[in-house]
Write a structure and sequence with these properties.
11 helices; 0% strand; mainly alpha
């Protein structure tokens, strides 16, 4: 069943791409800054965090602005993609009711793909800052691409999972917005994992986004590849969530279409 669904996604890949492009264009329709918001928002939040923790609290991380930026860009990708994917079945219920020939998972996947494109555009504009800071980043771009692919797979699995649950528990979307506020504080975006006291570090390590953020920071900020152990953990997380998402979707698909 899983193999057949993947095959169908490949066959309708151009339709998936078109859906993602429509969503990306709709996101900035009527906006004067347009796609520049993909750069402006991370920079504004980075400046705010930098002022609070570097200027006021004097956190001891060299080149702290770039450190925050290396984590805040993928964090926005994560929150935006998951928020839109969670609501995707409800928002696009009319498309699902038509029982189109493409798989129903196209709906959340297209939302995540649109946010991936938005993330890549923002990263493309900001990447020269990291390269100027450390030229070794150029040689690590293939490794960065691998991290992005694994991050995308993780989000697809989690997005399918949340979009299914949201059909049956409509309050989930509201809980997620609250959850992100807590999730952000236990993700090492504005602090290094090393400064967390050992008895409390397990809280961050239990958070799957910690492992992705650290990989991004290793490449963009530290200009190095992560250990094989860290990469293996991220690969395993991505695999678990994509399988879990599809298992739930296959089991609940018929009921899901009735509930929308």
């Amino acid at each position: 069943m899983f193999k057949e669904r993947i095959k169908k996604i490949y066959l309708y890949r151009y339709a998936l791409w078109d859906m993602a492009m429509v969503q990306l264009k709709t996101k900035y329709a009527g906006s004067r800054l347009g796609i520049w918001w993909a750069v402006v928002i991370p920079l504004i939040l980075t400046a705010s965090i930098n002022f609070v923790f570097n200027v006021v609290f004097k956190i001891e991380i060299k080149h702290y602005t770039l450190f925050i930026l290396s984590g805040i860009i993928p964090w926005f990708f994560f929150t935006n993609a998951l928020t839109e994917a969670t609501n995707s079945f409800i928002i696009n219920s009319s498309i699902l009711k038509q029982r189109a020939s493409f798989p129903c998972e196209f709906i959340p996947i297209s939302s995540i793909l649109a946010n991936l494109l938005n993330f890549l555009i923002g990263l493309g504009f900001l990447l020269p800052l990291f390269i100027i800071f450390n030229l070794r980043v150029i040689w690590l771009l293939p490794f960065l691409l691998l991290i992005i692919i694994l991050n995308f797979i993780f989000l697809v699995g989690l997005g399918i999972l949340f979009s299914c649950f949201n059909v049956f528990f409509r309050d989930l979307a509201h809980f997620i917005s609250i959850g992100f506020m807590i999730w952000f504080w236990i993700t090492p975006v504005f602090y290094s994992l090393d400064i967390i006291p050992f008895p409390f570090r397990w809280i961050c390590l239990f958070n799957p986004m910690t492992h992705y953020i650290v990989l991004y920071q290793d490449v963009l900020f530290r200009a190095r590849t992560s250990s094989l152990l860290n990469l293996s953990v991220v690969f395993l997380i991505s695999l678990i969530f994509i399988l879990l998402g599809y298992i739930i979707l296959v089991k609940k698909e018929s009921l899901l279409l009735k509930r929308i």
